[in-house]
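Notes taken during the Thursday session

The instructor put the following on the board and asked us to keep it in front of us for the whole hour. The protein is Glutamate-cysteine ligase family protein. We were told not to look anything up and to reason only from what is written here. First, the residues (502 in total):
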Amino acid sequence: MGTDVAKREFTGADRVQFRRQVSRGTEAIARMLADGLFTDQGEPPEPLLGMEVELNLVDDEMNPAMANATVLDAIADPDYQTELGQFNIEINVSPRPFVTDDTISLEQALRTSLNRAEDRASRTDNHLVMIGMLPTLTHEHFAHQWISANPRYDLLNRQIFAARGEDIEIDISGIPLGEHHPTERLHTTTDSILPEAACTSLQLHLRVAPEDFAAYWNAAQSIAGVQVALAGNSPFLAGTSLWHESRIPVFEQATDTRPLELKNQGVRPRVWFGERWINTIFDLFEENTRYFPALLPVASDTDPIDELDDGRIPALDELRLHNGTVYRWNRPVYDVVDGRAHLRVENRVLPAGPTVVDTMSNAAFYYGVVRGLVESDRPLWSQMSFNAAAENLQSGARAGLEAQLYWPNVGWVRPDELTLRRLLDLADVGLRAYGVSGKARARYLSVIEGRCITHQTGSVWQRKAVVAREDAGETREQALRGMLRDYVTLMHEGEPVHTWSL
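Then, after some discussion, the predicted structure tokens were revealed:
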């Protein structure tokens, strides 16, 4: 959805043309795969680490700041861009080689960039927060008026509601904050998709050779539950204690184009884990084409098959736009750079924050474990059902480190125990295969190990901090605001979250 969309109204003819173009784009992908027209066909791609980090904006009182236009003007850096909500911005980190100590240099560059952006934002009395879900957001902040000014966001909002035909319902039962705390429930409706904007994430990109794409995607799917359990940082929304990683159910519900009747018929949701392991990237593009109607049917007259016949690499604008409105937790990406096509896996399950080193550690763990699984003697996904992987995601998001996940040859296991016993070693093997230095491997994997040993993620710390404040007599609103102020202080100090005290 990063593409600007000028057209505001669509006809039936637009939809027919768009469907044709997406279908032709899918045919073009199949032909390019068969003809070896991708950059990395038959050769290992240079490992590149690329990421997008979504950020929240707050004022001096820790309220959501509806000020992204003002803040972006102050930052004046093209790496920072608008996002759906006026309380969001995003930083795009240019891909860098994923070898030797380059990950540490990337960490330093990201920290420098964020510090500079915070300094400039603070001159407007606004501040940046890396957190999975801003705890001071309330229902009032989901009003349509707070959608960012770029017309594409309002258009997306209108198209989703046109498909749905009724207000969006958010209905999530949380987990108790402690033994003597009741289960809390968020049940609300909204006339905008802004609850989606509450879900601020870390998105990781990995370029892969076409023949390896299926293995990397399957591997990413298989560890999604472990990822969210180890990195949970989104426990509160609208004053309510929800899941450890509440982004997962909130995003699923906030972008659901299906009324109840279509859900009952089994129509697939646009926020989708998927339904099967795949054999080729073509499987995913074909599913997107077959199952999901267009939200933004902006079509051109350029036939991608004609482009191939003329010896050119097609841009596949319609396929890419359509792909961007099917919100898979691990999404296939087709891109063309300098006239050469390549494929990427985009991992979307992780929350932002809490600190830069936590962010880099989450990334290193993901890249390392995925590479380790791909190079294992027997694929993990051949030993577990796809439904087990999907259930792991829901369980890990809901219960965090207390979740019970299914793992082949282990059975039911907590994510911290699984990580300490198996996945840290696997991640180290995978990172070493990329060429990441021992110094960098030790730095980032020790952070993941620390969370498992101390049993503290960003979500755990936030929940403990709110309980402590409420036990001291504060209201929920006061506790959330005070917790967030402490969070921001510790975020700037930069020590990993497993070392944070209350």
